[in-house]
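Write out a record, fold above all:
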Amino acid sequence: MKKSKFSESQIIKALKENEQGRSVGDLSRELGIDKSTFYYWRKK
């Protein structure tokens, strides 16, 4: 399995920003990831 280029703390920070009202689209664009990757992180 390929290693993530994001640390666990970066992922947690992005998830918290989403909880505070930031859209998945904005976060995905800023991080350079697909929306499905973000939803995978959230599911995990």
Summary: The chain has a mean pLDDT of 92. The chain has three helices and no strands. Helices lie at 8-19, 24-31, 35-43. The chain has one domain: 8-43.
